[in-house]
């Protein structure tokens, strides 16, 4: 797939929508850049899979969601968490494994969650969010709550069995679930052409009688428009949809990946199609911002990330005596 060119599209957007999307994208970019540096320096435990290069998808998608709407995430989930409203200080503390983290240091990078935000969890299992999202959609429908669930997954996850099970179930039950494929063209270290029989992943929606669409995932405006249509339909009872958002991760599968499976020229071409740069070109051309406005947004993100890091570094580790706490949701008292 060739990288897109030109600025992002602003059709259907207003400054009141586009500028917060841009700010969220920048916050994710700065946060993930610093996380990369911290992990490379040996200051973070576990593994880290960054969201660099895919920021338009999370930011534009979550702009449509209510506070009580649901999302399911992946092992590459920091961007989803930030876009859904998780404070970066709690996210950073979780990556450090601190007691002040979103999950008291128990979840870490690949399992961070916050049910109060509808963030039902990142997931170390590829395709692990499909059933959770379908279940959340079923719950919303039975309660007539008007809530929507968005399932984020990658082009590797689309070839897992639970993808087919979840889409079939969601379609049969007309569940309010939007399946958002973040197609960064590599399932870990393997190009999509070697793992999928079809190039256009959106055609798989046909088998489950739901709308399917392939779009430029590096164009925040295009993502916002497509997700808006799908979310509105889901919320009104028209059932699920599948969106294939073509994008590209700027770095390897994980921090430290040698990336021997990707051609350097290909990487540079896609980095030139940076979703933040393309949106900024459009915002400036529209007269909605100038260079000083953009720098202020970046500076605010840098200050926020620095404060988040300071919060995490100065926070305490969990007490080992509480290692088995918070494993299960408290059941409350059982009636006699």
What attributes does this structure have?
336 residues; 5-stranded parallel β-sheet; 7 strands; 40% helix; globular
* Rg, nearest Å: 19 Å
Biggest sheet strand order reads 1-2-3-7-6
User: Helix content range of the residues, please?
Assistant: 25-40%
* Average pLDDT for all residues: 94
The chain-level structural class is alpha/beta
In words, what does this structure look like?
This protein is of the alpha/beta class. It is built from ten helices and seven strands. The relative contact order is 0.18. The strands form two sheets. It has a five-stranded parallel β-sheet, sandwiched between helices. It has a two-stranded antiparallel sheet with strand order 4-5. α5 runs parallel beside α6. The mean pLDDT is 94.
Record the SSE blueprint.
Blueprint: H1 15-40, H2 55-62, E1 70-72, H3 78-84, H4 88-95, H5 130-143, E2 149-154, H6 161-172, E3 177-183, E4 186-187, E5 190-191, E6 212-216, H7 220-235, E7 241-246, H8 264-271, H9 275-285, H10 291-314
Helix pairs in contact: 1-2, 1-3, 1-9, 1-10, 2-3, 2-7, 4-10, 5-6
């Amino acid at each position: 797939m060739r990288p897109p060119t030109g600025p992002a599209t602003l059709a259907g957007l207003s400054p009141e929508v586009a500028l917060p999307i841009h700010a969220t994208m920048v916050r994710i970019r700065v946060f993930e850049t610093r996380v990369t540096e911290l992990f490379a320096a040996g200051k973070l435990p576990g593994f880290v899979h960054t969201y660099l290069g895919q920021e338009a998808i999370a930011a534009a998608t979550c702009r449509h969601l209510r506070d009580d709407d649901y999302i399911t995430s992946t092992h590459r989930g920091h961007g989803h968490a930030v876009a859904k409203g998780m404070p970066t200080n709690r996210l950073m503390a979780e990556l450090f494994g601190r007691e002040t983290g979103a999950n008291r240091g128990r979840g870490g990078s690949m399992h961070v969650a916050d049910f109060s935000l509808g963030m039902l969890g990142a997931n170390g299992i590829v395709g692990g969010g499909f059933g959770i999202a379908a279940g959340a959609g079923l719950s919303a429908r039975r309660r007539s709550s008007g809530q929507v669930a968005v399932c984020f997954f990658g082009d590797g996850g689309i070839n897992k069995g639970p993808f087919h099970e979840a889409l079939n179930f969601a379609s049969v039950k007309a569940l309010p679930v939007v399946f958002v494929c973040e197609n960064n063209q590599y399932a870990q270290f393997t190009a999509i052409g070697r793992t999928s029989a079809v190039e256009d992943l959106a055609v798989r929606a046909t088998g489950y009688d739901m709308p399917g669409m392939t779009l430029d995932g590096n164009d925040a405006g295009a993502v916002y428009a497509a997700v808006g249509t799908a979310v509105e339909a889901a919320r009104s009872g028209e059932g699920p949809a599948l969106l294939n958002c073509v994008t590209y991760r700027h770095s390897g599968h994980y921090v430290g990946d040698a990336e021997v499976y990707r051609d350097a020229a290909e990487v540079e071409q896609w980095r030139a199609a940076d979703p933040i740069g393309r949106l900024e070109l459009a915002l400036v051309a529209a007269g909605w911002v100038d260079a000083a406005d953009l720098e202020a947004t970046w500076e605010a993100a840098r200050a926020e990330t620095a404060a988040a890091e300071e919060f995490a570094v100065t926070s305490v580790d969990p007490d080992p005596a509480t290692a088995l706490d918070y494993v299960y949701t408290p059941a409350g008292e059982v009636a006699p």
